[in-house]
Write a structure and sequence with these properties.
222 residues, alpha/beta, Rossmann fold, Arc Repressor Mutant, subunit A, four-stranded antiparallel sheet, 18% strand, phosphoprotein
């Protein structure tokens, strides 16, 4: 999930729509609502955030350092002002990157991936048994052959791979894929996506690589 902070509702709606086309969940806030949320949000909710995009907002209410007190997710400033002075000011405030608008959504996603890889030393892919699962939007591979998947199923597989070695709950998967404020989709849709994903993986691997336990959640095994 990507969190967008901007006072303009039309800007929020625009980014929500564009990210949705890429299969990426979002949550949007104005300055005051965001300040209240980021200081009180549950740790599990913050773990589902891939990045924070800070646009036109009250800089006093939206502090990159305050965000970093709660989470290590990248903080990126979206700037309408193409001046060196403004860019330097934004970097001094503690953001990880400054992107000048207009910018394509895919460039934003590429920058987020680059920052996360650099800061967290994430690999471009995770290998689990015969599976190679990429973290940059490419189709996963099994024994070197691409496995085409719908966007939601691919994102679930990426999320399970990113959390290799520990279980994640249905709620955590839902928050990461759909966003914590999506009231139009039922959380049980995760079970449907995972069921379809398991069938495809089982056909290719000969076994089910998604271990699930009731009340405990899901874990990817090799």
């Amino acid at each position: 999930m990507i969190v967008i902070v901007d006072e303009r509702e039309l800007v929020q709606e625009g980014y929500n729509s564009l990210f949705d086309r890429e299969g990426v969940a979002t949550a949007s806030f104005g300055s005051d609502a965001f300040g209240e949320w980021v200081t009180s949000a549950a740790e599990e909710d913050l773990k589902s955030v891939r990045a924070f995009l800070i646009g036109d907002c009250d800089k006093a209410a939206v502090s990159p350092r305050q965000i970093r007190d709660r989470t290590g997710a990248p903080v990126i400033a979206l700037s309408d002002h193409h001046s060196l002075e403004n860019t330097l000011m934004l970097f001094e405030s503690g953001v990880d990157d400054v992107i000048r608008k207009p910018v394509h959504i895919r460039e934003i996603l590429a920058r987020i991936t680059a920052i996360r890889r650099r800061v967290q030393e994430e690999q471009q892919f995770t290998e689990i048994g015969a599976m190679r699962i990429f973290m940059d939007g490419r189709e996963p591979e099994i024994d070197g052959e691409p496995l085409p998947l719908p966007r939601r199923e691919r994102r679930i597989l990426e999320y399970l791979a990113a959390n290799r070695g520990r279980r994640v709950t249905k709620t955590q998967v839902f928050n990461a894929i759909y966003g914590i404020f999506d009231d139009e989709v039922e959380e049980n849709v995760v079970e449907s996506h995972i069921s379809k994903l398991r069938k495809k993986l089982r056909e290719k691997l000969g076994f089910d690589p998604i271990d699930s336990k009731r009340f405990l959640g899901y874990r990817l095994v090799g």
